[in-house]
Amino acid sequence: MQKKDLKFLTQLVEAPSPSGFEQPAAKVFRDRMKASADVLETNVMGSVHAVLKGTRRKGVSVMLAGHIDEIGLMVRYVTPEGFLSFAAIGGVDAAILPGMRVRVHTAKGSLLGVMGRKPIHLIEEDERKNVTKLEKLFIDLGLPVDEVRQQVRVGDPITFDVGLETFGDGMAVSRAFDDKMGAWIAARVLEEVKAAGGAAGDLIAAATVQEEIGLRGGATSAYSVDPVVGIAVEVGHATDYPDIDKRKHGEAVCGQGPIIARGPNINPVLFDLLVKAAEKAGVPYQIGAEPRGTGTDANAIQVCRGGKVAGLISIPLRYMHTPTEVLSLEDLESAVQLLARFVLDLAPATSFIP
Predict the structure, then answer these.
(1) Please, what is the Cα angle at 86 between 82 and 88, to 5 degrees?
(2) Which of 211, 212, 290, 333 is catalytic?
(3) 258 CB contacts (<8 Å, ≥6 apart)?
């Protein structure tokens, strides 16, 4: 991965953007897309649409959607002692929180906080066997109560205080790869298609919002953009580490390419074209069985208006919804090549009727 592209990825995942507070990540996305998009717009929800106009009047329009919201926390109450009680934004695992450092984002700037609870010495033996509930945890800002009340408001968002690092053999670890790396892929595909002279139809790289709390940005973007084809670019569960039952969850390996989903949420003609594009591009790919709804923006896209041609490309991800999500950078590059090839080869006369 080129340095400028890794820098873009780092800026995206490190921009604080829990669901409903995506503006910092949206700005990073817009700043990158200014040089490539013919049209750049942000809708009332906060989703960003970068449009590369097609070269032919009857070309097939394609929207690539990667959501830029991340899981996080929200200030719910300030205790008389100046500690913060909080609620979860999205699917937060309470088991990972004790001892974590967090960042509270206020109107006056961000504050470092420490996730606190009683030390193990003071926890009863039976209680040690259970996960501490969110309402029993609190955030310590190291400040007097008066200062806390001056700086922090109920409803302020909170993120895990970690960023992106590379390690091992081409691997990267960060919070919020789910799913800001999807927006990164969509942006990079638009850049590659533009460099190749453009596609027949419009290409829309969409950085959608509020996926983690109900696919809201995907639904509204699909309705307003109204593409013929909508592909969610997401993370998928890697199953290449201990204690994952592949008979139950299938096989998905980091470094062996993006996952092309197959199932009722996916248009079968589109699935075949994505496989063909991967093979033509010469990139590795994996197939993921999705026997029902995928729980991604592809759900919302498929049932938009009278129905859309929906697809899903996922990157194998270890330890989803933790501060240490792990993926292979090469899988991201392969996804860019696969999707660029698909968009460039998509014929105006293509019929997606099964």
Answers:
(1) 165
(2) 211
(3) 278, 283, 285, 286, 313, 314, 315, 316, 331, 334, 335, 338
> CA 265 to CA 267: how far, in whole Å?
7
Q: Which DSSP helix (H) or strand (E) runs through 11?
A: helix 3-14
Look over the chain and give the mean of its residue pLDDT values, rounded to a whole number: 97
For Cα atoms 17, 187, 6, give the angle at the middle one, nearest 5 degrees. Answer: 75
> Closest Cα to residue 14, out of 6, 201, 195?
6
Residue 125 catalytic? no
Q: Which residues of the chain have pLDDT under 50?
A: none
Question: Where do we find the tokens 């302020």?
Answer: 156
Distance (Å, whole) CA 162 – CA 198: 37
Whole-number Å distance between alpha carbons of 122 and 130: 14
CB 99 within 8 A of CB 240: no
| DSSP states of 313-330 | EEEEEBSTTSTTEEEEHH
Looking at residue 287, its pLDDT comes to: 98
